Structure formats: C-alpha cells, structure tokens
Amino acid sequence: MNNTLDPAGVNSAVFIQCVGSREPDRPYCSKVCCTHSVETALHIKKHNPSSQVVILYRDMRTFGERELLYKQAREQGVIFVRYDVDQKPRVEVEGDAIKVTVKDHVLGFDLTIDADLIGLATAIVGHDHTDLSQMFKIPIDHDRWFLEAHQKLRPVDFATDGVFMAGLAHYPKPIEEAIAQAQAAVSRAVTVLSRQSMTLSGTIAVVEPTRCVGCGVCWTICPYKAIDRNDKGLAQVNEALCKGCGTCVASCRSGAPDLKGFTSQDVMAQVTAMYS
Ligand code: SF4
Ligand code: SF4
Predict the structure, then answer these.
(1) How far apart are CA 44 and CA 32, in angstroms?
(2) Which of 36, 156, 163, 197 could make a disulfide contact with 185, Cβ separation 3.0–4.6 Å?
(3) What's the pLDDT at 136?
(4) pTM score, whole prediction
C-alpha cells in the first residue's frame, strides 16, 4: 500500500473536522487537527492551485499564531463550511466517486461535494494508563489524561512527589508545547536530582500498629498516596511522601494514626494551656 500523497494529483479534497471530538462522550478538543488540516490544504493548494479544497468544521481552532495559516488558507481559496454537530456531514461512495453532503448553515441548504481525497480529523484518545497510574500513584481523569498537581502553580508535577509529566499523556497538544513541557519537567527533576540530601517536613503521620486493624480507609483516602499496607496488612506511612495533611488521622475510626507534633495529647495540652 502506498501511503504517500501526491498533492498535485488532488483535484478535490474535503477535510472533516471534529470527528469524534467535542461530543458528549469525548468533550475535549484534540487541539492539533484544525492546524493539520489547514496545513495539508495549503500543501495541496501550493502544488495544485486550481484544486478545490473544502474544510468542514464546527469551530476553527488554529491556536495562537497558527491563525496566520488559517488566514493564508482563506486567501488561497480554501473553502470553509461550518456544520452543526446535530447535522454531521455524510460521506457516500458511488462507484469510484466519493460524495460528501453537508448542510451549509449560511445558505440553508445541502451542499454536495465530489471528492477524490477525504481527510478525517479524528479525536486523539488517551490510552488506558491504569497500570502506570497505580504503579506511580498518580491520578488520571475520566478521559484518561493524567492530572497535574495544579494547572497554574505546578503544571508539570504530580501530587506524588518526584513524578513529572510531559506530552500527550497529559492532554492533546502540539509538538512544541510537548517539548516545552518536557523541558520544564526536566528542570523540575533536576532540582531534585542535583541535591545530596533533602529536608522534609517533620509534621508527618505515624501509625500506632497496635490500634490499626488494616481496614484500608487511610490508604484509600490519603490524597498523596503516602500510606500503604505493610506485610502484616497494617497501614504504614511513607515518610518521604506524607505531607502532614491529617486526612488519615481524621478518617481512622481506630485512632491509629497521629500527626507528629499534633497528637491528641499535644492539642489537648494547648487547649488546656490556653484556658488555664
Ligand atoms: S484507617 Fe486506621 S485502622 Fe484503618 S488501616 Fe488506616 S490506620 Fe489502620
Ligand atoms: S497526613 Fe495526609 S499525606 Fe500524610 S499519610 Fe495522612 S493523609 Fe496521607
């Protein structure tokens, strides 16, 4: 099979955007496809200026300076037709011919386009990262993209310390954005790797094993995945990961975990001192 495209031989091309994107099951924008379709349209126009190139879109999202490509495509005669998600374009094969029918919302009637090339801008879909997510204790959202610790303050970190992210595993993005994110992730990793030792907070949880019954509430609820089941089936805190948030202390019905420096006795002593 020959996968190369001879743009000079294309007389009529139709690109259909948002194929599987921005629908109830997959509501996100795949971000790169509008630009790719416009670039391919320009490529065809460059080699065959008399060709008819039509892009069927719902919203053109040529991000940032890629808007210039969109402007260039308009200037070179690429035709943009908007379609509605409830009235998707229909592709039919009749003998050797391919026909695309779409309702033009400006003209208010169906357009039928004969095409010898069709480009489908299909959705970028996240892989099933469940194993990786469980191994590194890092969260994924319902669309199977990894979730950063904070979109603005910690955009390449996970809530789990020492694990960083970059690229398409996060969400669909163009290559230069993925590279910038990878550089940021490397910088963050170097801040850890360049140290001989690390100073951690002393305010961490400790579990009193004689009170723990191994019910698992704490390791399920800990937002930093800092508690695991030990070989006796009891809770065990990873001191390097614990952030001292106290969630496990508040959630344990056996009263087994305590926060160093904030044990029940410490807090009661402070309250007593305040009122004495
Ligand atoms: S919630 Fe309490 S009893 Fe249950 S596993 Fe954790 S420390 Fe043990
Ligand atoms: S104090 Fe917070 S971070 Fe530490 S083990 Fe308990 S729930 Fe996890």
Answers:
(1) 19
(2) 156
(3) 87
(4) 0.75
Ligand 1 atom closest to Cα of residue 253: 2
Tokens of 265: 């006795």
Q: CA angle, 53 as apex, 50 and 55 as ends, to 5°?
A: 160
Measure 157 CA to ligand 2 centroid, in angstroms: 18
Report whether pLDDT(182) > 60.
yes
- Strand intervals (E) in the chain: 12-19, 52-57, 79-82, 90-94, 97-103, 110-115, 117-122, 205-207, 227-229, 235-237, 257-259
Protein residue whose Cα sits closest to atom 4 of ligand 1:
215
Alpha helices in the chain (DSSP H): 33-47, 67-75, 130-136, 175-193, 217-221, 247-251, 264-275
Q: Which of the ligands is closest to the CA of residue 258?
A: 2
Q: Apex CA 265: angle with CA 237 and CA 249, to 5°?
A: 30
Residue 221 CA: nearest ligand 1 atom is 1
pLDDT tens digits, residue range 57-113?
Answer: 999 999 889 999 999 999 999 999 999 999 999 999 988 889 999 999 888 899 999
Do residues 249 and 272 lie in contact, with contact meaning Cβ atoms separated by under 8 Å? no
245: Cβ contacts below 8 Å, ≥ 6 apart: 223, 224
Domains defined along the chain, listed by start:
10-122 (3.50.50.60), 130-193 (no CATH), 205-262 (3.30.70.20)
Span 193-231, pLDDT tens digits: 999 998 888 999 999 999 999 999 999 999 888 999 999
Measured in angstroms, how far is the CA atom of residue 210 from the centroid of ligand 2? 19
Q: Is 216 in the pocket of ligand 1 (CB under 6 A)?
A: yes
